[in-house]
């Protein structure tokens, strides 16, 4: 038997032996009974608390309350996103690898001198952004998830300059325990 044929035969036998154990692999209970997650958000530019509530196995509502203080200004933000969860990318005995995407809104309140992405500066006020978080991470078999997300944002309005369009990108790591 040639070398490639031996390799393919061994791979087939290994896959045949592993298939029954993969078929009975435990699925994460997140979104399947444990539908409410509460935890911390670490990101740029803020830190805070977050929750994720599953409406179905494939949809959830994520809400984060964040804050920061640096370079002479304070910030408080609230964001809400409707997430579409895609099927598992991979699964092991301890976690499922999943990703999500969804539309949302971000509202920020600023105290002090703030630099906007378009280069303009203003003193205090609030702004509104449309956002689309794109996340990937692990949903563990015990009720914990760790997700990394990029959040492209489109500025819509701020109190100093009114309506305008500007682009911003944020990032976050969510760590949540599910009840």
Description:
The chain has 179 residues and is mostly beta strands. The protein has a single domain (29-178), classed as Porin, CATH 2.40.160. It is 12% helix and 63% strand. It contains one helix and eleven strands. Strands 1, 2, 3, 4, 5, 6, 7, 8, 9, 10 and 11 form an eleven-stranded antiparallel β-sheet that branches. A hairpin with a 5-residue loop joins strand 7 and strand 8. The longest helix is centred in the N-terminal third of the chain and has 21 residues, at 3-23. The model is unreliable at 10-24 (pLDDT under 50).
Primary descriptors:
single chain; about 180 residues; mainly beta; Porin; eleven-stranded antiparallel β-sheet; 1 helix; about 10% helix; about 65% strand
Sum this structure up briefly.
This protein is mainly beta. Helices cover 12% and strands 63% of the residues.
End-to-end separation in angstroms reads 55 Å
CATH topology: Porin
Please tell me how large the radius of gyration is: 21 Å
Could you give a short account of the major beta sheet?
Answer: 11 strands, antiparallel
Number of domains: 1
Question: What is the beta-strand fraction?
Answer: over 45%
Question: How do the helices and strands line up, and which of them pair or pack?
Answer:
Layout lengths: L2 H21 L12 E9 L2 E8 L4 E12 L2 E13 L4 E2 L3 E7 L2 E12 L5 E11 L2 E7 L3 E15 L3 E17 L1
Antiparallel strand pairs: 1-2, 1-11, 2-3, 3-4, 4-6, 4-7, 5-6, 6-9, 7-8, 8-10, 9-10, 10-11
């Amino acid at each position: 038997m040639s070398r490639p044929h031996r390799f393919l035969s061994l791979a087939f036998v290994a896959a045949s032996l592993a298939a029954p154990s993969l078929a009975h692999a435990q699925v994460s209970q997140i979104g399947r009974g444990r539908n409410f997650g509460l935890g911390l958000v670490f990101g740029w530019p803020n830190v805070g608390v977050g929750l994720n509530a599953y409406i179905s196995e494939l949809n959830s509502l994520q809400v984060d309350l964040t804050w920061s203080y640096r370079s002479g200004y304070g910030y408080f933000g609230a964001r809400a996103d409707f997430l579409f969860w895609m099927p598992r990318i991979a699964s092991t005995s301890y976690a499922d690898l999943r990703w999500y995407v969804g539309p949302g809104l971000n509202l920020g309140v600023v105290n002090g001198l703030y630099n906007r992405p378009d280069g303009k500066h203003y003193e205090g006020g609030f702004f509104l952004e449309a956002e689309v978080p794109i996340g990937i991470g692990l949903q563990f078999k015990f009720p914990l998830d760790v997700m990394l997300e990029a959040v492209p944002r489109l500025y819509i309005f701020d109190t100093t300059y009114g309506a305008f369009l500007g682009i911003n990108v944020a990032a976050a790591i969510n760590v949540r325990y599910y009840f």
